[in-house]
């Protein structure tokens, strides 16, 4: 049994081979088609494919105009990539508290951290459970700052009937190896506004307006880069892998929700376990299944002895030296950091595996 699972469909293998045979392996038709299908099948708005989730965050910050001295508010309950993407722009990550009930950023804490230097808010949908996006977008509108959702865990999640990827000015997705939908490495930046979409497409590829810059008389493309552009695009090999996996995505998501449903029913009265809060107005994508557990170390040891890879996926990131040390006054974060444990919830688990997990947990630790 493994904590994560990498799904590669037969169709993916076929499409990747087609790209290899064609020798057109950089960004091209597959990447365009993948963007189209992500939009049509998953309800994402204007997904711009890139080579990682980190690149999607980095690109969003660039398009939002975040630069030296600006502040970006985010939770510490995330992977280090979220905070590093801000430092890459010489901006300052400002860590807000999380809700102990969900592991997600607390809108009240965001309010208390807003200053004249705040340029963006970066909520992270912990384990795939959507943050309080109405409240967060309301704060952003009030203060005229951008919202960049870090939805690395949340492909397929919904909030009030809408897909994550259709809610805020920017949403960054990850298609890294162990995510719900993989392209090997890869990501996408969803942009609600046409101008952001235009800028994101230009700046992911050297600030060249690829859609409109035609090859000139000597054969080279004529262009005028007006901003600093980067090389962040997704190539066709990755896109083929993702495109081939898209057919299976609805089943993947269904299975994850089914397994999570079993856990929730079976664990809700187990002494020593508190489940996270799940509200009716949003659907979790369940990248992992996080709960809060008393005597966490004993719990993890007991499960691992039974071959179950219980784990702590990401501890708070603000204590990394690169961020200048731990942020004081985040009580929700402190407590969550001490109690959180995650279980596998992926579609590589058999029914027997799930029974083993449930029975082992119920025997106590
Ligand atoms: C919350 C979060 N944000 C961003 C990333 C970065 O994504 P990637 O590995 O695709 O760059 C990850 C990666 O797992 C993540 O967990």
Quick structural summary:
With 365 residues, the protein is of the alpha/beta class. It has twelve helices and 13 strands.
List the helices and strands and how they pair.
Layout: H1 10-22, H2 29-42, E1 47-50, H3 53-63, E2 71-75, H4 80-87, E3 92-96, H5 107-113, E4 118-121, H6 133-143, E5 146-150, E6 158-159, E7 162-163, E8 170-174, E9 187-191, H7 194-203, H8 236-246, H9 249-267, E10 273-275, E11 282-283, E12 289-293, H10 296-305, H11 331-339, E13 340-343, H12 351-362
Parallel strand pairs: 2-3, 2-4, 4-5, 5-8
Antiparallel strand pairs: 1-9, 6-7, 6-11, 8-9, 10-12, 12-13
Helix pairs in contact: 1-8, 2-8, 3-4, 3-7, 9-12
Structure, described:
The protein has helices spanning 10-22, 29-42, 53-63, 80-87, 107-113, 133-143, 194-203, 236-246, 249-267, 296-305, 331-339, 351-362; strands at residues 47-50, 71-75, 92-96, 118-121, 146-150, 158-159, 162-163, 170-174, 187-191, 273-275, 282-283, 289-293, 340-343. The protein is an alpha/beta fold and 365 residues long. It has a seven-stranded mixed sheet, with helices on both faces. Strands 7-6-11 form a three-stranded antiparallel sheet, with no helix packed on it. A three-stranded antiparallel sheet has the order 10-12-13. Bound molecules: pyridoxal-5'-phosphate. Pyridoxal-5'-phosphate (PLP) binds next to α3 and α4.
Descriptive keywords:
3-stranded antiparallel beta sheet, single chain, 7-stranded mixed beta sheet, Aspartate Aminotransferase, domain 2, binds pyridoxal-5'-phosphate, 2 domains, Aspartate Aminotransferase, domain 1, 365 residues, alpha/beta, 37% helix
């Amino acid at each position: 049994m493994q904590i994560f699972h990498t799904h590669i469909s037969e169709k993916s293998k076929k499409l990747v081979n087609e790209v290899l045979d064609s020798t057109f392996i950089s960004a091209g038709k597959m990447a365009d088609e993948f963007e189209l299908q992500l939009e049509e099948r998953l309800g994402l708005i204007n997904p711009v494919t890139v080579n990682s989730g980190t690149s999607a965050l980095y690109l969003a910050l660039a398009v939002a105009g975040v630069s030296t001295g600006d502040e970006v508010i985010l939770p510490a309950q995330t992977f280090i990539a979220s905070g590093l993407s801000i430092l890459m722009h010489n901006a300052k990550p400002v860590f807000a508290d999380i809700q102990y009930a969900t592991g997600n950023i607390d809108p009240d804490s965001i309010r208390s951290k807003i200053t004249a230097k705040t340029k963006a808010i970066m909520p992270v949908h912990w384990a795939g459970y959507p943050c309080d996006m109405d409240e967060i977008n309301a704060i952003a509108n009030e203060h005229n700052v951008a919202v960049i959702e870090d939805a690395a865990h949340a492909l397929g999640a919904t909030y009030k009937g809408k897909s994550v990827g259709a809610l805020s000015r920017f949403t960054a997705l990850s298609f890294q190896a162990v995510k719900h939908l993989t392209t090997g490495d890869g990501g996408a930046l969803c942009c609600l506004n046409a101008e952001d979409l235009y800028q994101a497409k230009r700046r992911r590829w050297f600030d060249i307006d690829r859609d409109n810059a035609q090859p000139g008389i000597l054969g080279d493309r004529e262009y005028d880069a007006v901003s600093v552009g980067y090389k962040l695009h997704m190539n066709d090999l990755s896109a083929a892998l993702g495109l081939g996996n898209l057919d299976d995505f609805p089943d993947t998501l269904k299975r994850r929700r089914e397994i999570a449903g079993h856990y929730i029913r079976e664990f809700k009265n187990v002494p020593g376990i508190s489940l996270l809060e799940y509200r009716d107005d949003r659907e979790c994508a369940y990248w992992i299944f996080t709960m809060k557990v008393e005597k966490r170390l004993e719990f993890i040891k007991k499960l691992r002895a039974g071959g179950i890879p219980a784990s702590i996926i990401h501890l708070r990131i603000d204590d990394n030296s690169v961020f200048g040390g731990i942020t004081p006054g985040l009580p929700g974060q402190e407590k969550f950091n001490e109690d959180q444990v995650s279980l596998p919830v992926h579609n590589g688990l058999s029914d027997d595996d799930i029974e083993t997990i449930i029975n082992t947990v119920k025997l106590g630790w």
